[in-house]
Amino acid sequence: METTLRRILLASLALFVLFGIVNVAAAAFLDPLYSVDVVFDDAYYYLQVAYNIAHGQGSTFDGITTTNGYQPLWMAIVTAIEFVFQLDKTWFLTAVVLVAYATISGSAIYSRIRFETPIAIALTLGLLSSYAVYTGVWRWGMETVLMAPVLPAFLLISRKDDPNTRSWLTGLLLVYMATIRLDALSVALGCAAVDGWSLYRREGFRPAFRRALIYVAPSVVFLGGYAAFNLAVFSTPVPVSGLAKAIGAPLFANWELAAQYFEESRALLLLALVLFAVEYKTKLFRRDAFLYPLMASFGIAILIQLSYYFSFSGWGAWGWYFYSNALLFALVVARIVYIGLHHTDAATFRWARRSAVLV
Q1: Are 123 and 291 in contact (CB under 8 A)?
Q2: Helices (H), 204-345
C-alpha cells in the first residue's frame, strides 16, 4: 500500500514540477499573445499596477487613476520583484510565474520531506490533488498561490508542546492568510469557533474566549491598520474593487454566486462522501481525529465567505475565490490517504487502502 502511494506521489510530483517548468518556459519564450495560457484575468492587473509602482508612477493601472483594488501581500511581492530586478514585461511575467510555481511545488516537496511517512504522503498527495482540481486557486498567477504553505504550517504548529505557543503561532499564521486575502478573516473565525468550542467543553469559557481572541484579534488589528492606510492614501478604507461589486447590488440576493459555490464544491462534496464511507468502514475517527478540527475550520470559513458575498456582492466569483475549498479538498484527500496508510491489517482495512489508492 505505502509503496503504491509512494509511486503515485513521486509520479504526480514529477509531473507537476514538469508542468511548472513548461509554464515558466512558455512565459519566457512564447509570443506574449500566448501568455493567456499561463496567467489569467486579474493577474495582468497585478502585473501592470506593480510595474507602475516599481517604476515610480504610483499605484495605478492606466497611469492616470490611482487604485487600491488588490490584495496586499501578493502586490508587495510582485512589486518587489520588478523593483529589484528592473525586468522588461516579458521577463517580469516569467519571474512571477516562476515564483508562483516555486511556492506551490516547494510546499508539496517540503511536506514530503518534513513529516514522518504516513502524514508526509497523505498531505503531499492532498496538496497535489488540490493543485490539479482547483486551477483557479493555484495556477492562474493570483495571490492564492501563497496559501500553499498554510497546511504544512498548521501541522508544524500543532506539534508544539506549549498550548500558548500553539495559540500565538496560529494567530500569526492567520494574519499571514489575511495579508493574502482580506476575506481570510473567515478562516480565523472558523479556527476560533472550532478550537474555542473544544476548549470550552474541556476548561470553560475564559480559556476558550482567550484562545479565540488570540486567533482573531491579530487579523482584526491588521485589517484595521490596512483600512486606515487605504483611507489616508486612497480615500476609501476598502479596495475599490470591493466597492464596485457592491454598487447597485440588492442585499441577500446573489443566487448566481451561490450556484457558483455549489458548482465549485461538487468535487469536494463527492470526496467527502468517500471519506464518510471510509470512516464508517474503519471507525478510525473514534480514536484518531487527525485533521478534522482544521477541516471543520475551513468548512466554516467557506460558509462565512459564501454568506458575505451572497449578501453584499452583485458580481460572480472567480476561481481564486475558492481557496478555502481548495485547502479543504487537500485535507479530505489527506485524511483518506492517512486512513489507508494507518493500518496494516489486510483483512480489515483492505477496502480503506483501495479507496486511498483510487482517490
Answers
A1: no
A2: 205-234, 240-246, 255-282, 292-312, 323-342
Give the residue carrying C-alpha cell 514529477: 14
Measured distance between the N- and C-terminal CA atoms of the chain, rounded to whole angstroms: 13
d(CA 259, CA 310): 10
- CA-to-CA dists, residue 158 to 163, 169, 238, 313, angstroms: 9, 9, 33, 36
pTM comes to 0.95
DSSP code string of 221-233: HHHHHHHHHHHHH
d(CA 100, CA 108): 13
pLDDT in tens, 137-193: 999 999 999 999 999 999 999 999 999 999 999 999 999 999 999 999 999 999 999
Furthest-apart CA atoms within the chain: distance in Å: 70
What is d(CA 82, CA 68) in angstroms, rounded to the nearest whole number? 18
Q: Measuring CA to CA, how many Å separate 27 from each of 37, 51, 86, 92, 102?
A: 9, 17, 17, 9, 15
